[in-house]
Amino acid sequence: MPHARVALAQIDTRVGDVAANAQAVLAWARRAADAGADVVVFPEMTLTGYPIEDLALRASFRRGAEEALQRTAAALAEGGLGDLAVLVGTVGERSVTPVHEPHAPEGPRRPTNQAVLLQHGEVQARYNKHHLPNYGVFDEYRIFAPGGDLMVIDVRGRRVGVVICEDIWQDGGPVSQMDEAEVSLLVVLNASPYEEGKGHQRVELAARRAHEVEAPVAYVNLVGAQDDLVFDGGSFVIATDGRVLTSAPQFEEHLLVWDLLDDDDAPATGELARTLDPDEEVYQALVAGLRGYVRKNGFRSVLLGLSGGIDSALVAAIAADAIGGENVVGVSMPSVWSSDHSKDDAEDLAKRIGADYRVQPIKPMVDAFDGELALEGIAAENLQARIRGVILMAISNREGHLVIAPGNKSELATGYTTIYDAGSIGGFAPIKDVDKSRVWQLARWRNNAALDAGELPPIPESSITKPPSAELRPGQVDQDSLPPYDLLDEVLDAYVENAEGRPELLARGFDPAIVDKVLALVDRAEWKRRQYPLGTKVTALAFGRDRRLPITTAWREA
Amino acid sequence: MPHARVALAQIDTRVGDVAANAQAVLAWARRAADAGADVVVFPEMTLTGYPIEDLALRASFRRGAEEALQRTAAALAEGGLGDLAVLVGTVGERSVTPVHEPHAPEGPRRPTNQAVLLQHGEVQARYNKHHLPNYGVFDEYRIFAPGGDLMVIDVRGRRVGVVICEDIWQDGGPVSQMDEAEVSLLVVLNASPYEEGKGHQRVELAARRAHEVEAPVAYVNLVGAQDDLVFDGGSFVIATDGRVLTSAPQFEEHLLVWDLLDDDDAPATGELARTLDPDEEVYQALVAGLRGYVRKNGFRSVLLGLSGGIDSALVAAIAADAIGGENVVGVSMPSVWSSDHSKDDAEDLAKRIGADYRVQPIKPMVDAFDGELALEGIAAENLQARIRGVILMAISNREGHLVIAPGNKSELATGYTTIYDAGSIGGFAPIKDVDKSRVWQLARWRNNAALDAGELPPIPESSITKPPSAELRPGQVDQDSLPPYDLLDEVLDAYVENAEGRPELLARGFDPAIVDKVLALVDRAEWKRRQYPLGTKVTALAFGRDRRLPITTAWREA
Q: Does this model's pTM top 0.80?
């Protein structure tokens, strides 16, 4: 029996840009054909981008996607690629299950999340995803109806099963039927968002499925960023014994080509991507998240306040890696309480990354407000912080930069932020899912990576080593108000990411006074988190659609 | 056969406050017993409040609810109410279906949305809601597992079926089996959020179900506010022929008592609540929404900017009706472009509603920024608006008022707002789901209601009649930038609420140039809407969790 050559096209799609996504399918199908592939597999919802959220419920959007699908089928054949089997994802117009919607009693019917085989100029077959994730960041049960049929296609006389993403995460379902279908290969179209350590989970899961269906599993994942999600790629083929036969790098587009040999032969192996260490992986995810947001929203440059502190320094370094230091505008906005080392560190950082650096003291504005309003304590501290926010928005309005917010996850969790200040405003918050302990770790990793490459470390050493302070009053440091960050982050991890209650936290040995303080801070800060800009999810549970809690709640852990 | 007396306890619960909700159950059960009731029915998820969102996934929360349930059963008996059948809602600990969660591979199992019969000091029976709404504002499939069994309880020898909310909105399911169960009454525990016209839908639906099961339907609804949702009560009992036999008022707690007579007798009738006209109903919903947010979050007063325009005037009137004019702080923040009539109208309004009125000119702050930053055009206009935001936040920080944002739905839709200005900041946005045309209508309705009651109309006539303007430059009016509001609101209604595409909009006869302009504005403003404060939903589709769209999207209607 002839070998079947399989290409996994790990591409970066754009939500809503069906024309550009269709062009990408044509271009990558050609690359696959040039590499001798018999079949090329694209990520989940290739033509529409992922996730499309409530765009799925709009008839005009579904029509647009279907037209692009039909045009793509024709264009592939016209381009001489008619023999190539092309598996793409899209939104299916077909309605399966009625959904109740009070404002539309006759009800629109939900569409499906679909994989489509394009070949010989036509749509040859359609598969509707069975399992619809509706937890964490996912709302697929809201917008899709589940499918019920199997898809097994023929590639050079070999039976190849096709499923979509969540279908392999659930026991039972289409995968459990693939065994009887006697497939020689199972391909999976995915849009699996990045979170730390998820690559291992995917590989373990795929190994289990390969064992179940007694055939290799080819896993193709989306790459690139969409709002708060980063898709890290890392596509692979895995054997029935759990060996990774070939794998693509993370965070970049890639065509992974692999040969399906005879069922009785030892499986073919191919290129293997370098495994990133955990800090490098998270850092690359943050770079990809910011870069994707900037580019896909039509910006060319970003603007942020540089305080000399570690958060803004790390964010500036990420921004420089994402879009080039020359496209980063950093503004130092010293107050009378700002230390000299803060101003020096901010300037040093800007020089190291090649940013457009500016200084705008806030004293004249503070004085103007002070002359009109009698403010003391927190109100006076917050005023300074918010004046910085107004300055950044004014520069953004004047020059068109995207304002980015450098707040970290520990601050966001505890509400240790001034809402509408320079740390909270703008369109994107690159490190909002990175806790303070990790901020320091990533800064050290980035500097070490520079040293290893013989480059100047981007982040001034003193920004890493000095005690964190908002510098809104003389001598202020974060630990006046918060427990030490290493301890705080442990408590937050248990309470926020693991949803543990007070008894479980005490059983871990945390001091009850600290637990009570942290829980109260977290619960009270929900309203601020709701108004915070989007930012890249890198943990198993990010603030945002991953953790949906009421603002108004009297529940107190006791 | 003896009559069975049924009490519907339309109460206002608090999310997370299981102790207070349990106390309310005791107090209202006593009132029901005093009225001679055999059974008292409470709203959906009585003990936990509704909606609890991801609190459902927290084991400590479910334990707290279960303990409150058991204590309530005991306390009812100890209080001499052991014979009364008490139907309450809560979160069920019982896990039915496994749910996949990547960060918890062994998986917590989802709990259920439960109705529980308490009698003789014990939990007698539990019913798990079958149909889990997962559209619009609802995410129940995310947090609950569906039930599969029926609940039919005995009340004085009569068979009474019990279901929960969405169970009657779906054809099939438990209601379709109640016919065979030969019930004499179907009771429905609800937490059905208000939207305009929904009362009629509920009655029509309940009538259909009464016809199906050949028995009256007793519909008890939650009342009060929770974040963006208002529950309007309006509980009722409906006969098999579709006649409303008795009904409770909207927007207030109420005990509705009704006798279930012999199946062969003509059904009993009772009190009938006055029907509100549409403007009155929406206005009352807005009052209830703001009042609930203020009280349940522990505030005593609200703070807003008074521009003299219609939006802030309506919001101030709503606030005065919600918490008393003496608890409303209104700040006039004139610029050099503010007209005399604006300042006069703001002051006049404040006097009419008895607000704490203050004047804080912004010129000194504007001058300070102008001296430091060279700003022109939009950047200079936005600066003035944001300085007002900083002033309000400073006063709030100093004095502890809740800042409320007076932006309306037309502005929010088109992004005709300055992000972080006095119209966009704060904790709550009372009219964010009210379009501009409706703002004027509600203002007129409120003034007429005052005249009818022989009171001073709260809103100055000139705030209603003058052309709307942000007054950020000389002679500016909204219609320099936007189509006339009556036309704009029609296009928005079709595009946003009905999710129609461009072809459908053109088929309605709208001018293509206006359609293209409005659609582009709406699509581009998603990032601003995401950072906007919560506000009361009153339409079938409010911005927020009702309409989930990506910020990053290249989809353009064509």
A: yes
